[in-house]
Amino acid sequence: MKKFKSQILPITIAAICTQGMAVQSVFAQDEADLEEVVVTGTRGKPRSVADSPVPVDVFNADQIKSVSYTDTNDIIQTLVPSYAVGRAPIADGGTFIRSATLRGMPSDKALVLVNSKRRHRSSLVSIGGSGVQGPDIATIPAAALKNVEVLRDGAAALYGSDAIAGVINFILNDNAEGGSISLDAGEYYEGDGQQMTLSGNVGLPLGDAGFVSISGEFSSQDFTSRSEQYCESWFCVTDQSAEYQAAAKNASLEGDVVQPWGQPNAEATRFFVNSGYDISDTTSLYAFANYSESEADGGFFYRYPGNGTIEELRNADGSIYTPQDKFPGGFTPRFFGDVTDYSFVGGVKGEFTDGFSYDISGRYGYDEISYTLKNTVNPSLGIDSPTSFKPGDLSNEEIQYQADFALDLTDTMVLSFGATYMKETYDVKEGEESSYVAGPHALSDPYDLCVDGGTTPTAAGITAIANGSSLNCADPSDPVYKVVGVGSNGFPGYSPEFSDSYDRDSYGIYADLSYDVTDKLFLEAAMRYEDYSDFDAELVGKLAAKYSITDTFGIRGSIGTGFRAPTPGQQGTTNVSTRLPNGQPVATGLFPAGGPVAQALGAKELEPETSTSYTLGFTGETGPVSWTLDFYRIEVADRTYAVSTLPVSTDPNSAGYDNYLALSNAGVAGAETIGGVFYFANGFDTLTQGIDLVASMPIDWSAGITDLTASFNYNTSEFDSDPSEYLNAEDQFDFENATPEIRGVITARHSFEALTLMLRANYYGSYEDANGGSSISAVQEYGQEVMFDLEGTYHFNDTFSVTLGGRNIFDEYPDKADKEINDYCCGRVYSSNTIVPWQGGYYFLRLDAEF
Fold first, then answer.
1. In degrees, to the nearest 5, what angle opens at C-alpha 508 toward C-alphas 504 and 509?
2. What element of type H or E holds 145?
3. What is the DSSP string of 508-534?
């Protein structure tokens, strides 16, 4: 606790905290800002943020635009300290679709809405941790946003499954005229990672009573490398011959080291259209849609001679083949992902009578990721292996129909109720045959050159020897007996056995009663019943209240239960990739918990997670400072999480032999070459708790008014049951300690007539990372970091402006990973799993026009 106080003191001096960074007088102190109305967090009448019984942050278009990131994930992280997203450079599909956390909970426990309608999930299921399958926020371009509302409270009773940690509601532009265009370009201080974003919006009238707002964005970024040359105890590039080192320069398709660590190459084109039309004074039609195409590529682990992939093999004629014939300096597989995302929402809303409103809507959402793997081989195919593969596609499709109603029972009491039906489909599409087929070298002596079980050659072997082959059947280490991996190395394709469609449907009904008991006291109660075709029904509820003790001080709180049903993707995803369970690259398989492979290893069918959340908060104004302070506690039972990697070995005397037999008996191709296996399980209960502190204050001095805002999040996660059956000691330690507990942002903005300056300080607390697997052998502590952003905007006139700025202007980096006590390997310099940026300083220039 002493450590917490010492770290939080500097910011509490600057501010005591408000409801949200942009909620109350962030950049202007007028009455309109103070009475900002929000629609997230209550089903009754919209309320001002000051009157909301739960904490809601609101960020307008200017604040969103002031953050110089292309990815909306990074924008939200900059504005909301309790929201965090990292950059995992070697994470299979996680390279292309990034998962995040809100209040320490993974993004599939934070519901994402667009215009208050549920956003469809992405097609990617992350292969570690909670196995997140949440919406891809990056598909929502910043240019399309009017504002963003972030509800920092559990809301499953209001919105349904997933809203355990909170809700993020993206409100789209609704302008019927005018527009904007922006060109942003920059690069990192290292001279790499060049980025460019061209975005714009235009509003058009739809007759005399409607609008169509069209927003678009094109962005591109180049890869970065914050790496050193691969040099480990098992293989060191710089210890090899000069000839090998020269060849190794071509091992990776990008960078000057064989295994680069950094951001991927990426390019995206995204559009959003929002429209509405008033049929009458009481009836309106609305519709919005998006289309997004993006592509990115990132590296995998380096393959060196003798690593089980680059091995000498015997061809049918007895001659020697090795993948080094194709890749003389070894190779680093390069993973490419093409993501297509589109959706449509349409509905009608209005009033039956005065005080009785309705909103009836339908939506369709689709997300697909198509994989390509280059610069690799299917080892089992030997000399016939191609070097480029199509390992398959993943897709997620959702259809939902929803009806919401609100009835004014009295002037101060509103009953809201509604019903919903949703159908979800998750498809794992088969890859091309060469990406998954078990070639001849998946078996020992595939061409029968030696007598089965003997030490002498067959007739075919004798012929091979006569033609000059070095075949020696009496030598157990002869390449004729070598068995290598099956499938495109790095990411084996989806075979017919593991390609399938998983679907379900669900329906729900809810009721919410909100009551302004007096001018000072507001109460709200909600209940929701949902039934899933693949799970039992769930009933959850919520109570919330706000009491204004004085005109400038209030108290609020809530208690609610929630749940999250495992997605069809979490129940059906399978993957074989290279991971580092003990610090060394190992081919590791993830299998569905309900499938025969995982169940042979002891897995059970996944069940829903349930939760209970509590909040207690205070809102107030102290002189010129508007502030909020909110405490929260989230208890999650039966949390879905990936078990620690189980060893697999063909050695009958090893601990992993039984797991090998389970894989082999389940018909897993290439079981001999898999070194580890894991699955998702409802493994344990967790407790997440913390504090959100936010404040805004205008500073009036001789040069004008400086608007100062500050926000803090202190968050801890711990186990609430014994996790040792599912997680080893290292994974248990990292779950509780590997993320900074404290995160803070302070922003100051000042205008000098045509010039506006912005200075932002981003604070990341210390964190720890353990090594040792089943027993912790070492712990590295990473120190706290403060990174400053600075930008200046000059307005030539009401139409044109130019902005010059930088992120992390002092080029700060987190502590380097200590190889002596850490399990990071393979050219990695920084802990690439951290949420702390590790790319260094970045500068940019932006041109804007508004019309």
1. 170
2. strand 145-151
3. EEEEEEEEE-SSSEEEEEEEEEEEETT
Backbone φ and ψ for 145, nearest 5 degrees, come out as -100, 130
**d(C-alpha 434, C-alpha 835), whole Å:** 37
- Rounded-to-integer distance, Cα 811 and Cα 837, Å: 11
Element (H, E) at 426: strand 413-429
**Distance from C-alpha of 711 to C-alpha of 694, rounded to nearest angstrom:** 4
Nearest to 449 by CA among 438, 437, 464: 464
Q: Which residues contact 712 (CB under 8 A, 6 or more apart)?
A: 8, 11, 12, 17, 81, 691, 692, 693, 694, 742, 743, 744
What are the per-10-residue average pLDDT scores of the chain (851 residues)?
Answer: 38 33 34 56 67 86 84 89 81 79 87 95 87 91 93 88 90 96 96 96 96 97 95 94 96 94 94 97 97 94 91 96 96 95 98 96 97 96 97 96 96 96 96 94 94 92 97 96 90 88 95 95 95 92 95 94 91 75 67 88 92 95 92 95 89 87 80 83 95 92 86 96 94 93 95 92 94 87 96 95 96 91 84 89 96 92
Contact, 345 vs 289, CB < 8 A? Answer: yes
Name residue, tokens 């501010």: 15
Hey, where are the domains in the chain?
2-226+261-299+333-444+482-850
| Residue in the block written with tokens 């398989």 | 589
Q: Are 331 and 309 in contact (CB under 8 A)?
A: no
How many C-beta neighbours within 10 Å does residue 796 have? 10
Residues 6+ apart with CB under 8 A from 167: 40, 41, 110, 111, 112, 113, 149, 150, 151, 155, 159
In the structure encoding, which two tokens stand for residue 746, read together? 């302070």
CA dihedral 103, 109, 110, 111 (to 10 degrees): -170
Residue 529: exposure state from Cβ atoms within 10 A (0-12, 13-18, ≥19): middle
Q: Tell me how far CA of residue 778 lies from CA of 584, 716, 717, 718, 768, in angstroms.
A: 16, 22, 21, 20, 10
Structure tokens at 155: 């809301």
Closest CA relative to residue 785, chosen from 768, 810, 818, 763 = 763
Rg of the chain in Å (alpha carbons): 28
Cβ partners under 8 Å of residue 798, min gap 6: 850
Assess contact for 628 and 619: CB atoms under 8 A.
yes
Q: Are 397 and 422 in contact (CB under 8 A)?
A: no
Q: In this structure, are strands 210-221 and 575-579 parallel, antiparallel, or unpaired?
A: unpaired
Whole-structure pTM value? 0.90
- Report DSSP letters for 655-707, one per residue: TTHHHHHHHHHTT-TTGGG--EEE-EEEEEEEEEEEEEEEEEEEEEETTEEEE
Q: Which residues pair with 145 in a beta bridge?
A: 172
CATH class of segment(s) 2-226+261-299+333-444+482-850? mainly beta
The neighbour count for residue 208, using CB atoms within 10 Å, is 7
